[in-house]
Structure formats: C-alpha cells, structure tokens
Amino acid sequence: MNAVIDLRDIHTTYHTGDVDVHAVRGVSLEIKPGEFVAIMGASGSGKSTLMNLLGCLDRPTRGSYLLDGMDVSKLDRDELADIRNQKIGFVFQGFNLLSRTSALENVELPMLYVHRRPGGREQRELAVQALETVGLADRSDHHPNQLSGGQQQRVAIARALVNRPALLLADEPTGNLDTQTSMEIMGVFQKLNEQGITLIMVTHELDIARYTRRMIVMRDGRVVTDAPVTQRFMAEEELRHLREAQQAVQLAP
Amino acid sequence: MRRILATIKMALRALRRNKLRTVLTMLGMIIGVAAVIAMVGIGNGAKSQVEAQIASLGQNVILVFSGSMSRAGVRSGWGGAPTLTIEDADAIQRETPGVTVTSPEVRTFTQTAAGNENWYTQVMGESADYFTIRQWPIVSGASFTEQDVRSANKVAVVGQTVAQTLYGSEDPVGQIIRIKNAPFIIMGVLYPKGLSVSGQDQDDVVVIPYTSAMKRLMGVTTVRTIVVQAASPAQIEATQSQIIQLLRQRHRITPDKEEDFTVRNQQEIADAATQTTKTMTWLLASIACVSLLVGGIGIMNIMLVSVTERTREIGIRMAVGARGNDILLQFLTEAVTLSVIGGAIGIGCGMGVSKFISVRFHWPTLTPVVWIGAAFVVSAAVGIFFGFYPARKASQLDPIDALRYE
Predict the structure, then answer these.
(1) pLDDT value, residue B197
(2) Comparing C-alpha atoms, which of B253, B193, B216 is closest to residue B53?
(3) Which one of A96, A115, A117 makes the best mutation probe of the B interface by having the most chain B beta carbons within 10 Å?
(4) What are phi and psi of A135, to 5 degrees?
C-alpha cells in the first residue's frame, strides 16, 4: 500500500533576527494508511515544526514531502490551502472553534472552501453525519461557549473529518482537558483509527502517547526513536478502571 | 452566485456581532451620503427655481441696459450712466424687424400711501406691453393702456403685497394710491409671483406708465432699461446684434469706442444666475464628499481592528483550506456591506432632510434619480477602496502565526 506520508530528508530553517534556527534537521519518515502515530519530544525538539510541515501550513526548506502520493513540498500558498482543505483535518490543543457560531456551522466550515461545493442541504447532512461520528449530533445547535471542553474538542474532530481527509493531525489534543475527558477523546481517536483513518498526534505526555500504535520521539530536530507502542492503552478499558477507582473512593467511608 | 450570497450572509453575521460598533461605523457613511444627497437636492431645487424665475421674466426677452459693463479700469455697471432714451426704445421698435414689443423701464423706490396706511415700495415705470412680455396676468381690474402712457396719466397697477398692505381685504381697483404724494388711480392688481431668486418679494411693486414715472415722479429723461421681446427664440441673436448696431449708430459711437449700453438676452442672464447656484452646489457637494471620505476612513479603521481581533479566526479558516482570496473576499464583502447599508440609509436620510427643508422652509428641493444611483455606487466604491487594505492584510497573514495569535 502507498504511504500516506513520505518525508525524505526534510530540513527547515527559520531566520529569527540574526540567528538561523535549524528546527528540523533531516527527517525521513513514512506513514502508512491506517496508522496511529504519536510524535513526542520536549519543547524545542522540532515536533511543532514537523507538525506544521505535515499539515501543509509550512514548506520545508529542503527535502521532499509526498502526501497521499503527491509532492507538496513545492506548492504555493493557494495550492497548500487546497491540500489542507482536501487531505488534512486539524485538531488543535485550544479547540479553535469559531465562537458565536453553532457546532453544526463550525463543522460546515471546511466545506465553505471546497471548490465544487456541495449544496446547502447536502452540506448540512454531511456535517450532521460528522457530528454523529463523534457522538454530538444532539448538540449541533449549541455554541462553543455552551459546550464543555471535551465536547468542543469533539466538534473540532467532527470538523476535521467532514471533508473525508486522508490524514487527521492532532496537536496536543488533550492539552486543555482533564484526565477523564482526555481518555474519552483518545477513545474517539481510537475508534476513528479502527475505521481506517490515519492519525498523527503531537503530544508531550507519555500516557497519552500510549493510546497510539507507533511512537516517534524527536530531539534537536531529528527522530531519535521510532517504535511500535508496546503495552498499548485502550480507552474503554482505562475509562472503566477510572470509574471503578472513583466508585471505590465514593464507597469508602 | 451562491458563494457570493453565502459570503454576504457571513458578513452580515459578523457585523451583527458588534452591533454598536457597526452602527457607529455606518453612521460615518450615513452622514456622508445623507449630506451629499441633501446638498444635491437643495442645489438642484435652487437651480430649477432659478430657471423657473428666469423663464418668468418672459419669453424671448432681450434686455438693453444703459451704461456698459465695467471692463478695464472703473466703469459704471448696468444702468449706471443714463444713456438710453424713449427715442431709442421707439427706434428699436420701429427699425428692428425681429422685435414684437418693447417696454422702456425706469425704477425708483418711494413712499406710497392710501387712507391711513403707507408703504415704502418699488415703483416701476413700464409700457402697457410690459405685462405681456413678462407674462404677468392681471387678476382684477385691467392694465393701463397705451393711451395712458401717451398722456402720462396718473394710473397704476399694484402687486399683491402692496394691495394687501395698503388696502387689506378691500378691493384696490378704482381706489387712489398716493405715490410721492401724487394721487394715482389703481387700474388693476397683478397675479402673485412670490419671491425672486435673491429672495426679493416680486409682488411688492407698483407699476405705472413710464411716462408718468419719468415726468411726474422722477423728473428724468432717460430710461434705465429697455425690455425687448423678440418674435421667436431663433431670432434672439440676430435681433440682439441689430439692436447693438442701431444703438451704436444712434449714440454715434465710433467703432474704436466701447458701447455706452449693454445688451443681454434671457439665456445669458439665466446662465449667470445658474452659474452661482451651480458653484454653490459643487461647493456643498465637495464638503459633503469630505464627510464621505471621513466615513470611509472610519470603515478602514474598524476593519483593521476587526482583522486584528479575528486573527485567530483567520488562522482557523486558513487551516481548514481558505485561500488568501477567500479571506480577502470575506473582509472586503464585510466592508462593502457596511458601506452599502450605510449608504442606503444615508440616501433615505438625505431625502428625508430634503423633504423636511422643502416643507419647513418652502425651499424647493429636487433629488435626481441619477444622484441616488451615484450615491449607491459611490458608497460601494468607498467600501471597496477603504476595505481593501485591511482585507489584503488579513489575506496575507501566515496561518501558523495567525493560529498562534492570542
């Protein structure tokens, strides 16, 4: 099967003032469809830069990037925008929903920028479907400020899914959530991954990374570890443990 | 098309989010456009009024003034030097083929009285044809006759204001009016004409035979003006030059000398008068344009604030696939929506102001449809012009920076 992501010797250099920051120094990486990958690393390790590159928000200074078989490393701004629209779904740490806009309309947002736009009704149906996938169909008319953090992140996931992208990118998706909600969100990801969706997640929490299937650790702009996850956490199981523990606390005198 | 509608819907929603700000920004446009529309309305009303006034001078009228226009050095203006005589008027009547009728004219201001009332008013000495030339009908009684003119009879026709002031509700016809203590018999009352362009009461007048005025009131032998009516508009110019030739001859003016009289036709007078109102209109309109400019700057200002405030939103939109142009269009649409709605309200307000002025101050106002269309187009243009920079700024944001923006 063709790789969803094929990075070959990627370098990225930023010019901040007089100093050249060499954020990514030669990363080669291949991710196959249906994988669930965690990219880990301390701050300054280059993982955010790599994430921006993978998400087509930025272009590498050197090297080639094939996304879904297509070389995207030389595309211009508009072409990158189209690639983001068609092939990539983003989930952010801060949810990044449009405030004062209903959940449904937030999910419809990526469809506004599709070239051959579906009709208004079809658009609505697709958005509702995406909300159903994350279990939030009953909240579709709620505004972000009426939703909990976990619910907001589910809306964001629905938005990322609505254009049926080849790849879902999550940047610290649990960073603003409590433990239980984090588990729930990881559960959603695991379920999506079982349905065949390719997921890449940046995180600095080992606990969260252990819900994925493959772990990549970066340091100083290079990949230092790339290994399958052993002793993988399954969200459902972990949630059950957590509930039992909570019950035990409540039952205790 | 659907895309544009969706963008407009999006813009309206964004504008609704900050109602007070939107209204205040629009206010700039509203005031600007309303000012333009009101000014144009007033200016055009004034222009049409002037035109109507000039037309009420009569048809195909040529005026011969004594004295010449000041040219080099000091010259007395129209009517400054008494050079025209009754004989000149007769000669024009007799020897110029295109002329139908003439009326020598003298004017003076003097005290008039009737019974216990008295009134300071303008007394005009005219021929019996004057009322025909000016198309000024007599509503009660009759005009004086040519016989009255020949005999310098003490007869008069009075304007509405004089009639009302001196006689109240009584019918003045047949009554005595004392002009400079000389008793005149009132033959008729003129149709009310209202105010002139310069705000003068045209009905505040007593018209008597020019002979009576010259001999009995003023003791002069020259006339101020000769009012000439040409047979048709086509003959005005030819007649005008014939009159000039004739008078030069009669006044023995050698070709190297300036004329001691001035001939003007109605169109020239109309042009001069409308020129003033036109200048006024442009002046007012340019002041109004300045306020439109200020309104536009207000829009630009608020759009810049809006772009900064919504940097993160722009980042989100870009992340999910909005191109630079999508963002540009979104903000441009917002600015144009703002300015066009403001403009539309402004047009309404401006017409309201026009209406109010015409009702309250009896000033005629006229708003041509072209100007309404133009105001609409201009407000859209203001939106595009002043919205472009902020929109472009938004469209050029880097998605990574925009997403990170707090």
Answers:
(1) 59
(2) B193
(3) A96
(4) 70, 35
Cβ contact A90–B319 (<8 Å): yes
Cα–Cα distance measured from residue B288 to residue B131, given in angstroms and rounded to the nearest whole number: 43
Q: Does residue A57 sit at the B interface (CB-CB below 8 Å)?
A: yes
As beta bridge partners, residue B185 has: B155, B176
Enumerate residues 6+ apart whose C-beta is below 8 A from B130: B103, B105, B136, B207, B227
- Short-list A44, A45, A53, A70, CA closest to A12: A53
CA angle B314, A149, A178 (to 5 degrees): 130
Contact yes or no for B121/B206 (Cβ under 8 A): yes
CB contact under 8 A, B319 and A113: no
ipTM greater than 0.90: yes
Those residues of chain B that have pLDDT short of 70 are 1-2, 68-81, 196-199
| Token code pair at residue A253 | 């005198």
**CB within 8 Å: A81 and B323:** yes
- The domains found in chain A, sorted by start residue, are 5-251 (3.40.50.300)
CA–CA distance, B146 with B139 (Å, rounded to integer)? 19
A151 — pLDDT class (breaks 50, 70, 90): very high
CA distance A51 to chain B (A): 11
Residues of B with CB under 8 A from a CB of A: 2-3, 6, 17, 312-313, 315-326, 399-400, 403
Cβ neighbour number for residue B227 with a 10 Å cutoff:
23
What gap in Å lies between CA A108 and CA A127, rounded to an integer?
6
